[in-house]
Amino acid sequence: MAILFYDASIISPMILALSLLASLGCLFGLARRRQHCRPLTPWRLPVIGNLHQLTSLPHRGLYYLSQKYGPLMLVYFGSTPYFVISSGDLAREVTKTHDYNFSNRWKTSASRLLFTGSDDLIFSPNSHFWRQARKLCVNELLSTKRVQSFYYIIEEEVAELLATIRFSCQDGGSAIELGGLFLGLANNIVCRAVLGQKCTDGGNGDGTLGELVKQANELLTAFTFGEFFPFLSWLDNLTGFNKKGIQTSQALHVFLERVIDEHEIHPAASHADRKDFVQIITELQKNDMSGLQFTRDNIKAILLDMFLAGTDTSASSMEWTMAELAKHPTIMKRVQDEVRSIVGEEHKITEHHINRMEYLHCVVKESLRLHAPFIIGRQTFTDLTIGGFKIPANSNVLINSWAIHREPLIWDRPLEFLPERFLDRSSDYKGQDHYYIPFGQGRRSCPGAHFAVSEIEYALANLLFWFNWELPEGMAAEELDMSETVAQVSHKKLPLRLVPVPKAV
């Protein structure tokens, strides 16, 4: 999932001071105005623009601004203008009616460092390379058939997660922190599917792949001067951002280079339906079947994309879903009853079981509605008109899915966790419902949606089947903190701790 935002909490003391020093002489001469055929722009400060209005949660700050300035507004982050879309109807114009002309994407400061000298899938513009790389992902790496071939990995890794939780139950009623377990699960599933091996650190961070991916995600959400104040980009050297980006990029490329070399020197003898991504790509390259000769750097960049888009997002979604269920015990019981009635006396949950769990599907959809990655970036090829307003070529566009998922005219009681709303709603993860876009829409939608949902649903079904879940002693459901923090995706601010109670056999 291409989520393009950063942690705004650090800008206030540093950037506000810069703005005041640079603009005291002209501050009171500014007047709010609407340019001809341009969206409304919130009142802004010189130099920093509207950055001070984002608060520490940019998706919420943009939502509140849109309530006053409309579902299409023009904001300035530093000197860089962004058109912000906060309604499903306008999002449909962007991702359906004018999808091709909005299918570009700009490179961020972090992406330039992480993908030095190569194009990748997430941040590359709409080019011949990008179209062929996306075709490779959709048709070969993340097709429905391929995801089914990875299901044994999901089953094996979830089985290890269950064993870990059972072992923790020996302490007799102790709460466990689920976020770290979910991240380790997601890291290992993606690592095995992509590279054919586990993440040795389980996502906990000891300098190996899981920690490097964590560092890369932190870079992608870090505030940089060069992003919003190009004339001050040299300050990113002083803050250490550029140094950290270069070191992380080099370490990732060395790791991935070694893995590709190992695959070429010692090709694994595996079933045709159990190949990892490296095997698939290298075989396509060798047989000239991809339609494009990827460079070694291209291959490493595509592999890195899989980790950036497929680990933190899935782990966060599982944690949020379990938090919502703990917050709403009646819903927890309903979905648990469904899972247990479908599985019955069998001792292993299968994909066939999952396909029959309609209410579980609704629970996951509702969790993704409330806690989906929230800012989706696009860039225009040509001058366009959206909602009656002109948007020039090469404009940056942000689609605030957090706001779209809370439109009161579309969603009944939009702030509440109500899975049953999806029982009679034909929303899927393919972006056909332009009011429900947790994985984006159109050409830039996430090709790994099916893989992510398969992993999330299978893990949750097993947790609900094998364990009852309780809040730590003395805590009531209404006391569970559901505040969030900004990272590459929406995270719980406080880690979720629940007490697992093994199901009576």
TrEMBL record:
Family from the record: Belongs to the cytochrome P450 family.
Alphabetically list the UniProt keywords. Heme, Iron, Metal-binding, Monooxygenase, Oxidoreductase
PROSITE patterns found in the cross-reference section:
CYTOCHROME_P450
Which positions are annotated as binding heme? Answer: 446
Which Pfam families does this entry report, sorted A to Z? p450 (PF00067)
Which cofactor does the UniProt annotation name? heme
State what protein this is by name: Cytochrome P450
UniProt GO molecular function: heme binding; iron ion binding; monooxygenase activity; oxidoreductase activity, acting on paired donors, with incorporation or reduction of molecular oxygen
Q: Which residues form the signal peptide?
A: none
